[in-house]
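Here comes an entry:

___
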Amino acid sequence: MKRPIKAICTGTARPFNGAETSAIVKRPRQGVVQLLKEGFAPDEQADRRVHGGPEKAVHLYPLDHHAVWREELEDQYALAYLDEPGCFGSNLAVSDLNEADVFIGDRFRLGSAGIEINQPRQPCWKVDHRFGVKGMTAKIVKTGRSGWYFRVIESGDVQAGDTLERIEEGHREWSVLRVFTALITGKGCKAELKDLATLSKLSPQMQAKAVRKLG
């Protein structure tokens, strides 16, 4: 599996909701961008308690989902945002790839860097606020159009035009979509939750979430 990178996107924390700030708005970068253990340099996260860090170093929200949202949204301002490759907070703009195609532990070559999928993205209210449309976050949960995170295995340099190439398969039984369905939508059975609680390549935060759900 090899997909071209259409854009590398990063952002800075800006006023977002009153006194609150957010870096959900990501803009395309020109030229070579360095990828380190905690993400692209630089790329900010306003609330480091729940965003950023080595387990959420790189976010990918599939560009193909933008086309689906175009069919579902009516607000013209919201539709205009979909022209921006990083409008959902995504660092990588990639087409022809979705949550059912990739698996926890999949390793990829990205430019000269190495990255590994470790968890789906759990959406929050900021998506609704970003687009000015109530219910978008709820629809992401319902449909599983979540995107996912990578941890960085090997630092390197990346630029638009490079490729995202899978070089090693992870847990084939655990697609990003299946993990999202089990842990975020709350539809996981006890056996699935037990498996996820000890899934080696899954992020520690998601493993802990599975443990909590088991009670």
About this structure: The first helix runs from residue 63 to 72. The chain has a mean pLDDT of 93.
